[in-house]
């Protein structure tokens, strides 16, 4: 399940009005999300969720669903 | 049946495409030589040439009169001094562009120094020996009424080079004769029959394949045994200085005698000694009055590396750009001396 | 053995035939044997090196996969990467580093005679090290799900069609194919054969042939006029493309004969409308490798610098790309130049938009973009080809002399012919969206054309000295 917050962060950064994002979707399937805008999207996620990723975690991500799981694990930690 | 027809049509069509492709890219051009009845292997007039050999890169053409360089007609310009060059592949110089050939340096250098019109005609062709040079002199060069004829003689020109179909020179009662029968042997007849093949790029390409096969190297080539650094002509027979030593000496002696006798008339034959001759030849030359230019002394001042190294192919070979400059300069000096000597004795 | 040699053609025929005769279980063993036989022919000693590196990488790969502790994983992966890079660095760059170090010392006033070793470059080392590194890194980043045994991995690491000069395959693509049963399919033989034929044509009759002129003019530019040097520069652009693309086609074709599907490495690179586009069309396997294992990690590391993070990652990636090609400053500069082109494009997006609006229509815009891109790429190639900077500057100087010679027409004619044929091939690939263009023609037609091509290629190979394949020295 992709949370609304993640979805809105992505759409806002890529300047998209409406686009369905599912768990199995990969970055290049989202319009405008290429290797150059990738870092902006990640930064936006870090900012909006107030978390920090390390490179290894980022490079392991296979699809947006895994990004969501990663965010969940970090926000669960920080809310303790 | 229909498929076979289509196959044949497109096969021919593709070969036609390749004929055009090979010609336009000059990967391989139609042959620039042919077998002349009198002279044997000769340059084909108006043929375009492109040779990117193991050594250098030559792009140019044979002029419409059948020799290299600018085409000066047979009728000599009265105010000009006309110099003819005869020699083998070193003089032909198909390793660098004409603009870097010593012919050009000689011509422009002389015309500046002597303040006269100078015409230098290059009759050099690869593979000739002294007999071949003499034949060219008789049958071709003399028609152009040169004032000076330079024979570039190397040590290996004094023996049988036997590479090309040429009329055999022989002595008959002390007279030099040329045997025109050379075109009647098996090999030559085959060449004549298929001579038209060499007028096409593809034909010329397959003729070269045939040559590889003929020298027995086809198998080696296929097995990759010939690497990048082994040029084809290393397989050719090495020059044997002892083969028929006496016969050649007698022949060459007659040739030199002939040249010697012409010294008093219009043409001035000059022997340019490119490298060291056997002692008995030196003695022979000295016994005649023939003018000699000891080019070898000039060349001896430089290393083989300086004069014959080709950067693009990293090997030693014929005279390179630097050598041509030196040769041109040397000949210029010698000819100026010679011309002054003649005019002072006139 | 060179791909464009008869003994190699004999070799693949033999291997292909045996491959399908042998029971499927033994096929990987046959392949492994063929791989090493192929490598032995080139490089007896370095076959050992290949085997040693293969074994170490496999062993470490398993350890990384099995370990659960992230810290341990990380240490292992660093160790594996370092060993591979050190091997590459030693054989390829040792002399470069010592010579540069000596030059630096000399500049500072020290006179030193540090020794340089006569080190031979193992064939294909840059390629196979990158291929094995991708295996290790894919395990680390958990991209690779497939587990393979040692024989399967060894086949991957020494795969003879691609070991000399790529394409650089990924474990996730090639290992599954190695593991699977490959039955005989006539279609594979067809496709493989036609790929080899087109590859031979490109490499031998375009690449090698025009390369001869390039070699002589680049060796001594001072003897030639501007038009002639200009021709050589443009011809080099097409030489390196056709030489490499031809080789890649042959590699793909040979692999196809054995039932493997390999990356397409080139997609009409000179149709590119930007340098970025060029890198999506040129040596695709390398640029993807650099993107996945170098650019993206660097980009992530520097993401806090936003646009400048992209730029830093870009410059490092491309400069290293240049360095990968060869141990010399001209290669590094070539890479740096491309990094510069890419960075400039990133920083000038707004300006580009403005100019785009000025163009009358889309077609003229595309043509202009392609022309500018071609010019930029060609200019960079000068440094790639030149033996050193003074050679490169001499070439550029000659170009701007604007001198002509008596052969202007002939040189332009030669250039035009090579370009047209290369362009024709590219256009057909583009139009029919395939690199196996011969297959698009009807059987009797394509047989006729293939046979004719082979005739001419073989005749040419027999009568000329073989030109070594450019990328094999990497």
Q: What this model shows, in words?
A:
The complex is a heterotrimer of chains A (80), B (346) and C (474). Chain A has 80 residues and is mostly helical. Chain A has a single domain (4-78), classed as ACP-like (Non-ribosomal Peptide Synthetase Peptidyl Carrier Protein, Chain A), CATH 1.10.1200.10. Chain A contains four helices and no strands. Chain A starts with a helix and ends with a helix. Chain B has one domain (31-193, 236-345): Rossmann fold, CATH 3.40.50. In chain B, α3 (102-114) packs parallel to α12 (321-345). Chain B has a five-stranded parallel sheet with strand order 6-5-7-10-11, with helices on both faces. In chain B, strands 1-2 form a two-stranded antiparallel sheet. In chain B, strands 3-4 form a two-stranded antiparallel ribbon. Mean pLDDT of chain B is 84; it is low at 225-236. With 346 residues, chain B is α/β, with parallel strands linked by helices. Chain C is mainly alpha-helical and 474 residues long. Chain C folds into two domains: 6-181, no CATH class; 188-473, no CATH class. In chain C, 73% of the residues lie in helices and 0% in strands. In chain C, α3 packs parallel to α5 (125-140), α6 (150-157) crosses α8 (171-179) and α12 crosses α13. The relative contact order of chain C is 0.10. Chains B and C meet through α1, α6 and α7 of B and α9, α18 and α19 of C.
Radius of gyration of chain C: 23 Å
Report on the biggest sheet of chain B: 5 strands, parallel
**CATH-derived architecture of chain B:** 3-Layer(aba) Sandwich
Give the assembly state of these chains.
heterotrimer
Strand content of chain B: 15-25%
Note the run of SSEs of chain B as H and E: HEEEEEHHEHEEEHHHHEHEHHEEH
- Can you identify the CATH superfamily of chain B? SGNH hydrolase
Total domains of chain C: 2
Instruction: List the total number of helices of chain B.
Output: 12
How many structural domains in the coordinates of chain B? Answer: 1
**Could you tell me how far the N terminus lies from the C terminus of chain C, measured between alpha carbons in angstroms?**
16 Å
Query: Into which percent range does the helicity of residues of chain B fall?
Result: 25-40%
Treating each run of at least 4 consecutive H or I residues as one helix, how many helices of chain C? 19
Quote the average pLDDT of chain C: 89
In this structure, how is the largest beta sheet of chain C organized? none
Helix content of chain C: over 70%
What pair of chains forms the biggest interface? Answer: B-C, 50 and 48 residues
Topology order of chain C in helix (H) and strand (E) letters? HHHHHHHHHHHHHHHHHHH
Basic shape of chain C: globular
Low-confidence segments of chain B, given as residue ranges, are 225-236
CATH top level label of chain B: Alpha Beta
């Amino acid at each position: 399940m992709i949370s609304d917050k993640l979805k809105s962060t992505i759409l806002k950064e890529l300047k998209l009005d409406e686009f369905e994002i599912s768990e199995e979707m990969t970055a290049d399937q989202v319009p405008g999300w290429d290797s150059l805008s990738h870092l902006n999207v990640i930064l936006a996620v870090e900012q909006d969720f107030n978390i920090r990723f390390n490179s290894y975690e980022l490079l392991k991500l296979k699809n947006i669903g895994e990004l969501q799981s990663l965010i969940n694990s970090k926000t669960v930690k920080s809310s303790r | 049946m229909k498929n076979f027809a289509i196959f044949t049509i497109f096969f021919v069509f593709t070969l036609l495409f390749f004929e055009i492709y090979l010609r336009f890219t000059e990967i391989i051009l139609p042959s620039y030589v042919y077998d002349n009845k009198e002279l044997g292997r000769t340059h084909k007039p108006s043929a375009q040439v492109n040779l990117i050999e193991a050594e250098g890169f030559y792009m140019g053409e044979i002029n419409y009169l059948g020799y290299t360089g600018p085409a000066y007609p047979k009728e000599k310009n009265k105010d000009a001094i006309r110099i003819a060059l005869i020699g083998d592949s070193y003089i032909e110089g198909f390793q660098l562009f004409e603009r870097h050939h010593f012919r050009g340096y000689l011509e422009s250098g002389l015309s500046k120094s002597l303040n006269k019109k100078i015409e230098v005609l290059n009759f050099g062709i690869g593979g000739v020996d002294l007999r071949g040079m003499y034949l060219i002199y008789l049958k071709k060069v003399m028609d152009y009424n040169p004032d000076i004829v330079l024979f570039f003689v190397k040590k290996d020109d004094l023996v049988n080079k036997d590479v090309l179909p040429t009329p055999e020179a022989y002595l008959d009662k002390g007279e030099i004769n040329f045997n025109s029968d050379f075109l009647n042997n098996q090999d030559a007849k085959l060449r004549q029959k298929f001579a038209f093949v060499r007028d096409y790029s593809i034909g010329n390409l397959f003729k070269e394949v045939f040559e590889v096969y003929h020298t027995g190297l086809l198998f080696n080539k296929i097995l990759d045994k010939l690497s990048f650094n082994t040029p084809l002509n290393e397989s050719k027979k090495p020059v044997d200085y002892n083969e028929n030593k006496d016969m050649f000496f007698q022949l060459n002696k007659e040739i030199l005698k002939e040249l010697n006798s012409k010294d008093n008339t219009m043409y001035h034959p000059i022997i340019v000694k490119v490298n060291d001759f056997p002692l008995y030849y030196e003695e022979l030359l000295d016994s005649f009055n023939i003018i000699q230019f000891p080019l070898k002394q000039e060349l001896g001042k430089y290393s083989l590396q300086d004069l014959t190294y080709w950067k693009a192919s990293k090997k030693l070979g014929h005279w390179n750009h630097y050598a041509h400059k030196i040769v041109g300069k040397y000949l210029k000096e010698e000819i100026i001396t010679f011309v002054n000597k003649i005019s002072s004795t006139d | 053995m060179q791909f464009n040699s008869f003994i190699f053609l004999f070799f693949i025929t033999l291997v292909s035939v045996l491959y399908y005769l042998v029971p499927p279980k033994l096929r990987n063993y046959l392949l492994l044997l063929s791989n090493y036989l192929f490598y032995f022919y080139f490089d007896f000693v370095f076959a050992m090196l290949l085997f040693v590196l293969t074994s170490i990488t496999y062993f470490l790969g398993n350890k990384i996969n099995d370990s659960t502790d992230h810290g341990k994983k990380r240490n292992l992966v660093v160790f594996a990467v370092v060993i591979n890079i050190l091997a590459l660095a030693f054989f390829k760059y040792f002399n470069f580093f010592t010579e540069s170090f000596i030059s630096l010392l000399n500049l500072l006033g020290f006179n030193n005679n540090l020794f340089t070793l006569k080190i031979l470059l193992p064939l294909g080392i840059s390629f196979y090290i990158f291929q094995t590194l991708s295996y290790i890194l894919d395990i680390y980043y958990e991209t690779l799900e497939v587990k393979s045994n040692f024989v399967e991995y060894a086949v991957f690491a020494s795969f003879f069609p691609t070991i000399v000069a790529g394409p650089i395959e990924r474990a996730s693509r090639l290992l599954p194919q190695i593991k699977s049963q490959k039955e005989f399919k006539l279609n594979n033989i067809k496709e493989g054969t036609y790929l080899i034929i087109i590859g031979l044509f490109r490499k031998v009759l375009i690449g090698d042939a025009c390369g001869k002129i390039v070699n002589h003019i680049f060796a001594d530019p001072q003897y030639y006029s501007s038009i002639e040097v200009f021709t050589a520069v443009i011809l080099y652009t097409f030489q390196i493309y056709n030489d490499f693309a031809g080789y890649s086609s042959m590699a793909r074709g040979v692999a196809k004969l054995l039932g493997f599907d390999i990356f397409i490495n080139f997609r009409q690179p000179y149709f590119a409308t930007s340098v970025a586009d060029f890198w999506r069309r040129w040596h695709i396997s390398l640029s993807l490798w650099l993107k996945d294992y170098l650019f993206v990690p660097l980009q992530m590391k520097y993401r806090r610098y936003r646009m400048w993070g992209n730029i830093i990652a870009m410059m490092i990636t491309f400069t290293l790309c240049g360095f990968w090609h060869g141990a010399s400053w001209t290669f590094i500069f070539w890479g740096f130049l491309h990094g510069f082109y890419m960075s400039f494009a990133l920083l000038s997006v707004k300006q580009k938009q403005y100019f785009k609006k000025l163009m009358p229509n889309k077609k003229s815009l595309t043509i202009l973009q392609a022309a500018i891109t071609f010019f930029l790429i060609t200019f960079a190639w000068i440094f790639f080809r030149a033996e050193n900077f003074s050679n490169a500057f001499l070439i550029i100087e000659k170009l701007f002399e604007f001198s002509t010679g008596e052969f202007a027409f002939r040189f332009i004619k030669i250039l035009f012919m090579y370009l047209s044929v290369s362009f024709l091939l590219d256009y057909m690939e583009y139009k029919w969206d395939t690199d196996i263009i011969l297959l698009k023609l009807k059987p009797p037609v394509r047989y006729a054309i293939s046979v004719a091509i082979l005739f001419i290629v073989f005749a040419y190979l027999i009568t000329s000295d073989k030109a070594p394949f450019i990328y094999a020295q990497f």
